[in-house]
Amino acid sequence: MAKINQNYKKLQGSYLFAEVARRRVKFINDNPNAEVISLGIGDVTRPLPEAIITGLHAAVNEMAEASSFRGYGPEQGYDFLLNAIIENDYQARGIDIKANEVFVSDGSKCDVGNIQEIFSLDSVVAVTDPVYPVYVDTNVMAGRSGDYVKDLNRYSNIVYLPCHAGNHFIPALPDKKVDLIYLCYPNNPTGMTLSKEELKKWVDYARANKCVILYDSAYEAYIQEKDVPRSIYEIEGAKEVAIEFRSFSKTAGFTGVRCAYTVVPKELLAYDEDNNAVVVNELWNRRQTTKFNGCSYITQKGAAAVYSPEGKAQIAKLVEHYMTNAKIIREGIAALGIEVFGGINAPYIWLKTPEGMGSWEFFDKLLTQAHIVGTPGVGFGQSGEGYFRLTAFGSRENTEKAVERFQNLRF
Amino acid sequence: MAKINQNYKKLQGSYLFAEVARRRVKFINDNPNAEVISLGIGDVTRPLPEAIITGLHAAVNEMAEASSFRGYGPEQGYDFLLNAIIENDYQARGIDIKANEVFVSDGSKCDVGNIQEIFSLDSVVAVTDPVYPVYVDTNVMAGRSGDYVKDLNRYSNIVYLPCHAGNHFIPALPDKKVDLIYLCYPNNPTGMTLSKEELKKWVDYARANKCVILYDSAYEAYIQEKDVPRSIYEIEGAKEVAIEFRSFSKTAGFTGVRCAYTVVPKELLAYDEDNNAVVVNELWNRRQTTKFNGCSYITQKGAAAVYSPEGKAQIAKLVEHYMTNAKIIREGIAALGIEVFGGINAPYIWLKTPEGMGSWEFFDKLLTQAHIVGTPGVGFGQSGEGYFRLTAFGSRENTEKAVERFQNLRF
Fold first, then answer.
1. Does the pLDDT of residue A103 top 90, yes or no?
2. In chain B, which residues have their Cβ closer than 8 Å to the Cβ of A179?
3. For residues A83, A88, A90 and A95, what is the CA-based torsion angle, rounded to 10 degrees?
4. Residue range B265-287: mean pLDDT, rounded
5. How confident is the model at residue A384 (pLDDT cuts 50, 70, 90)?
6. Which EC number(s) does UniProt give (chains A, B) (predicted)?
């Protein structure tokens, strides 16, 4: 008799963005004339830059001729893309990463979701709170979470590291033993960053305790301030303890194209049950070669165009566009007396809900009174209660309109 | 301290095709002037048909304009593709499958590798032997396999269903309790099929024992004979017990483009630890929405073009091309007195190694004497020992040359 993975029963409700979409659709159905502006899901809206379009078309043409047709490629990605990645994103910044330490995939959501598979089921997982729900849910599915404790809105075996205005969104080191630590900087959802000094504390902690840091850096391209680390490998010793996840989704508008990569340095070790050190790179390579068949050749050619001189210039403009939106939201809302965070090195603005409202209460008010969809902070964890996320990915027109509409809110 | 998933240590050697590639590269390095023909990995070689190229270019152009740009799509796939799939692959054949029972992905290898996640870790898994290694290895990684028993070349907790010339490659029903049954027809690696009567025995068995059949139908497009089932759902009651995996890889030359789909009927049930029935479709939906971000929009547009009148005609020609190769190999090798199977409804020819040679021994002989790369049958399981797989995916010229070279083999 086929039995289900019982851990799925521990998952809470539907995935956050599905619930947001459900309420949005209901509102639109009930109010067909309302012009709803979505600043909810972190999805880009600008078209792909010309250099990428050119790269994609060229790759499609190659697939039309027997002499240049490509079938299965390396599961880890083509050398032309791996080399562009290491040269531009690492070596150009003085970080020595080799091509065989990089694994190209069809998305960071897959990678950050799948990475836990190569670690023991009894690993203790630490996450910041609020947190991108995928880190938690994939560990719930695997059986590492313990039971859901309704009163706390938390799982019993997950170690939560609260981040809020009171601690300037800087998580404290765990006060109990942990094995795997998920960090995301620039942070989703708060839009906040860690300084090199703060990040160094985590690397040192992981080295001292033989933890692995799963470092999600999907928003790296949005960093504006010079002293903010763009890669965890800028920190000495990080290659011994950290896996870094990067994506073309937000960098180059690839949310619908699907390309990302994960760096697993050869120095990174974990331990078997006899405490023998194991090279984690080999485990991930085995996972990917067994369960994944490589990212589309066409997509990889598009991603490689990101690193051409034209591609770089065009992408810089894309980022500038979204970061101007971020500034408009940040300053416009702050002017109304609402406390705002993020939006300086990230396309996310994290606001303190006015009047001490709950996150979902504010979601409903914003939707019904201003016809704006955002994301309730509590959807990212209990420490997000009383906060709310807006994204800078809307059109300029909608972004400006949304800020105006904030003035119409009645409390 | 980060501990590894100890199950990875049970995996045997490298993934089969990696070992084949290793020996191939070594031979080429040692014999730089040898003209090696690869009939090993099941990878297509013909360019993408024109209708698909046109569809891909059109989608790339859409991504270049803000008005038609697509970001994140539905994790399950776009309606335009889901509807084309159910209308053409199911409803046109009298099978009632709904769009919300279909999940588009970036490849069947991912889907058949990931599907086990939604079932209990103590599920007993049955596989045919020989078998596509992904079914076994992904269950080893998850911890369902038990230990590897070297003398048997098998895992202790996996139920193997031998398929060989002696039973006409028709697996017998398991003689012990199993929960999940992987079937692949047309079969990889043997190229053999099951009749409706034989497949019905499996559906009936699964219904009687509340098992789930994981039915890999990646080679369906190659079926030539009328009475061979093209979908397991042609069998009455199969929707209660079977998940079907389909791919555009071999159908339409998408091995480098990456698109596949999985059908999980709403009727399909599995059971929780209190024996309550659970709708498996909802589990897979949760898995996909949490760990996957949808298949590339551009790719899905290319896949939809497969179902256009031009696309269908062009794909039929592709399949005809490969199946003519299959006939050339099958008949050419049989004429030398070698016993051959498959190659009639599948692009794989499964041959009995001459003179009772071992599979790897024959691999080395074929490589060194005829400069042909094939795949050793034993790589697919112990019952594949003494067999060898050739694929029909080479160019016509190489296929004909390879058959000629078979005559040069010295035993």
1. yes
2. 1-3
3. 100
4. 98
5. very high
6. 2.6.1.83
- Residue A167 C-alpha, separation from nearest chain B C-alpha, in angstroms: 27
Tokens 């599905």 label which residue?
A: A18
Provide the mean pLDDT of chain B: 96
User: Is there a contact between B107 and B259 (Cβ–Cβ < 8 Å)?
Assistant: yes
What b-and-e string marks burial along A86-97, b requiring 16 or more CB atoms within 10 Å of the CB? Answer: beebbeeeebeb
Q: Do B2 and A271 touch (CB under 8 A)?
A: yes
Q: Which percentage of chain B shows pLDDT scores above 90?
A: 95
B211 lies in the same domain as B63: yes
Q: What is the ipTM of this complex?
A: 0.96
For residues A23 and A94, state if they share a domain. Answer: no
Looking at the predicted structure, is the pLDDT value of residue B209 above 80?
yes
Residue with tokens 């992981």: A206
The structure tokens listed for A147 are 């039971």
Q: Flag if A47 and B53 touch (Cβ within 8 Å).
A: no
Interface check A33 vs B, CB under 8 A: no
Longest dimension (CA), chain A: 66
Smallest CA–CA distance from B281 into chain A, residue: A4
Report the pLDDT value the prediction gives residue A13, as an integer from 0 to 100.
Answer: 72
Q: Could you tell me which chain B residue has the CA closest to the CA of A12? A: B286
Measured in angstroms, the CA of A66 and the nearest CA of chain B are apart by 5
Nearest to A2 among B123, B137, B290 (CB): B123
The enclosing domain of B65 has a CATH number of: 3.40.640.10
Of B211, B278, B293, the CB nearest to A110: B293
Q: What is the CA radius of gyration of chain A?
A: 21
Residues of chain B with C-beta less than 8 angstroms from the C-beta of A298: 56, 256-257, 298-299
Lookup result for tokens 């809470």: A12
CATH assignment of the domain containing B37: 3.90.1150.10
pLDDT at B13 over 80: no
| Residue A397 lies in domain | 7-46+310-406
In a domain, A325, yes or no: yes
- Number of A to B CB contacts under 8 A, please give it: 261
- Does the residue B1 lie in any domain? no
**A325 and A387 housed in the same domain:** yes
- Whether B263 maps to a domain, the answer reads yes
For residue A132, give Cα distances in angstroms to A16, A121, B57: 10, 21, 34
pLDDT surpasses 90 at B69? yes
Within-domain flag for A134: yes
User: How far apart (Å, rounded) are the C-alpha atoms in residues B291 and B76?
Assistant: 12
Put simply, whether A294 touches B (Cβ < 8 Å) is yes
Please enumerate in sequence order all residues whose Cβ is within 8 A of that of A313, keeping only pairs 6 or more positions apart, or say none.
none
Q: Cβ neighbours of residue B192 under 8 Å, at least 6 residues apart?
A: B163, B168, B169, B185, B186, B341, B342, B346, B350
